[in-house]
Design a protein that fits this description.
Layout: H1 18-21, E1 30-34, E2 37-41, H2 46-62, E3 67-71, E4 76-79, E5 82-84, E6 88-92, E7 107-111, H3 117-131, E8 135-140, E9 145-151, E10 157-159, E11 164-165, E12 170-172, E13 178-180
Parallel strand pairs: 7-8
Antiparallel strand pairs: 1-2, 3-6, 4-5, 6-7, 8-9, 9-10, 9-11, 12-13
Keywords: Endonuclease, Hydrolase, Nuclease
Pfam family, one: Uma2
Organism: Saccharopolyspora halophila
């Protein structure tokens, strides 16, 4: 008896793989894999996109030449069953391929949305930690707040003492010096 397939020709009864991602519909969702489990995220809202755009530009302006800043969708492909797309990533230029990043980025940034908040602060944080991503930032556009995690010598994230909220500045030293003011990432508010 042959393998049973479901919608889009995906084989049922086994973990999802990166090969299955190519069969996902172009429906506006972002599809990621975490240990063979498919994560589907709807298109983000205005505040999310403002933060991604402004933080990406800020990081790109301050990065050293050997690093690159890329927004999603660009995949961190850790294995055949794990492919994540942080909202922003900073990677060594030498680690990038045209298709994806097969090595851990030096910084992964997730901007919270109602549909992603639980994954971003729990399962994706744990996955980035396991993959050896040395710096992980979570930005909440609602408050606005930036929380930074740094990979300690024991391979576990420690919460940095500086959690910047609103007009407070976060003075990052890793992966390179940059000053981020969470409230400025939203730009002008719509009336």
């Amino acid at each position: 008896m042959g393998e049973r397939t479901g919608p889009h020709g995906i084989v049922r009864g086994r973990p999802f793989t990166v090969h299955d991602l190519a069969a996902m519909p172009a429906d506006g969702n972002r599809y990621e894999l975490l240990d063979g489990v498919l994560l589907a995220t709807p298109a983000p809202g205005t505040a999310h996109q403002k933060v991604v755009l402004r933080l990406g530009a800020l990081l790109d302006a301050e990065r050293p030449d050997e690093l690159e800043v890329l927004p999603a969708p660009f995949a961190v492909r850790a294995s055949v069953t794990t492919e994540l797309q942080p909202d922003l990533l900073v990677a060594r230029d030498e680690d990038l391929t045209d298709a994806n990043l097969p090595a851990p980025p030096v910084l992964a940034v997730e901007v919270l949305s109602p549909s992603t908040k639980l994954h971003d602060v729990n399962s994706k944080k744990a996955a980035y930690e396991r993959l050896g991503v040395s710096n992980y930032w979570v930005v909440d556009p609602v408050e606005p707040r930036l929380t930074a995690f740094d990979l300690a010598g024991d391979g576990a994230y420690r919460n940095l003492a500086s959690k910047a909220v609103g007009p407070e500045a976060f003075e990052a030293t890793k992966p390179f010096p940059v000053r981020v003011v969470p409230s400025e990432l939203l730009g002008r508010r719509r009336r």
